[in-house]
Design goal:
3 strands, mainly alpha, Growth Hormone, Chain: A
């Protein structure tokens, strides 16, 4: 909700869509850059100790933006947005780290990860639509306030849930500690670089949707197009998680990258609102496969005791790409063809790097590694 609400607040208060896109990009970039630090803190101190303080600060800053922004001008608004981004709670990395302790069975984890990734699309369906509806009916300031409240309440639900409170990361064996604790293997580095292209495509699409809404005089398009993309992600997650796959995780990752690129190409025909809304559902469906396989590959390649941090670097990669795509799309908002081409450009970059990374990624047989996380047994934290 937050990036869309920020753009709508800027434009409603007299700012340009380019400045709104810049602020939205800065929010996403700040959030992404801080993820590895918060992931490392979770690996050391647990999840609740990181989630709750971050959520309190983030919500307070988002709620303060409509109050302080007009009085302090662009500089103060920028400072508040960056600070809010830096304090976003690392919920996604934390949630992905919980699955091995909640579901020790590798096959169940495969299904859960796919459903997790796909059903997160519900947030991206409801979120932009809710922001657009609130901003249209009551103004973007209320939309920001609702975003702040929901963020705080949602984080509290996660942080106080038993799996999150009890979770402890695994520790590497002493004889391996000095050898395996680095996160710089070629497979991980190339995987993370490729995911910046995926994020770039998403960021470009979000601002392109707002430009489409302005071009056609249909305010709700700014929420409907991202919602259609997320609907595709939800359906893709349901299909992908429903069955077992004989191909390797790496093979599925590359194939999904190729179809993800193909799904963006129809936008180059400068489709109308209805056709464009339907078209974005196709790459949305492949996003779930890409992200789920990326998490599986990360789990295979990351050293024990640093899994949350590795997941956070994955999220950082997507976030950096998304912020870059958002900022560039804001600059190109007046150029219809260029704006429509940005998602395909990001997807093409992702596929090229994935092809280069393929020899360095773990095969499917190595994905299910045991002993990575601790799970509670008889009320105590013991390594399985």
């Amino acid at each position: 909700m937050a990036p869309v609400a920020i753009v709508l607040w800027v434009t409603a208060t007299g700012g340009s869509i380019a400045f709104g896109g810049l602020l939205s990009a800065l929010y996403g970039l700040a959030s992404s850059v801080a993820q590895p630090v918060k992931g490392r803190l979770m690996d050391r101190h647990g999840q609740s100790a990181v989630h709750l303080p971050a959520a309190l600060l983030n919500s307070a800053l988002l709620a303060a933006l409509p109050l302080a922004g007009p009085h302090g001008g662009p500089a103060l608004a920028t400072a508040i947005v960056v600070a809010a981004g830096l304090t976003t709670p690392p919920l996604e990395a934390g949630l992905r780290a919980l699955w091995p302790s909640v579901l020790p069975n590798p096959r169940l984890r495969h299904a859960a990860l796919a459903l997790d990734t796909g059903t997160q699309g519900v947030l991206y369906i409801v979120g932009p639509l809710l922001v657009a509806a609130l901003a249209s009916a009551y103004g973007p300031s209320l939309a920001l306030d609702v975003t702040a409240v929901l963020g705080l309440v949602g984080t509290a639900v996660v942080a106080f849930a038993p799996p999150s409170r009890r979770w402890c990361p695994a520790r590497p064996a002493s004889e391996d500690a000095g050898r395996v604790r680095r996160l710089t293997s070629p497979g991980l580095v190339l995987l993370f670089i490729s995911l910046t292209g995926v994020g770039f495509a998403i960021g470009g699409m979000n601002v392109w949707a707002i430009a489409m809404a302005e071009q056609h005089g249909q305010d709700m398009l700014s929420g409907i197009i991202p919602a259609a993309f997320s609907t595709g992600s939800l359906l893709g997650g349901l299909v992908y998680g429903h069955r077992s796959w004989a191909s390797s995780t790496t093979g599925r990752l590359v194939t999904a990258g190729a179809v993800f690129l193909a799904g963006w190409l129809p936008l180059l025909a400068l489709l109308g609102p209805s056709a464009a809304t339907l078209a974005v559902a196709v790459p949305g469906a492949l996003l779930t496969v890409l992200v789920a396989c990326a998490y599986q590959s990360t789990d295979a390649l990351a050293p024990a005791g640093r899994t949350s941090e590795a997941y956070a670097w994955l999220i950082l990669s997507i976030g950096v790409g998304q912020s870059t795509g958002t900022a560039l799309a804001g600059r190109l908002a007046d150029h219809a063809l260029a704006g429509a081409a940005l998602p395909a450009a990001g997807a093409a970059f992702a596929l090229i790097v994935l092809l280069a990374a393929r020899p360095h990624l773990a095969p499917a047989g190595h994905i299910a590694r045991r002993g990575r996380h601790r799970r509670p047994l008889s009320g105590r934290h013991k390594a399985p």
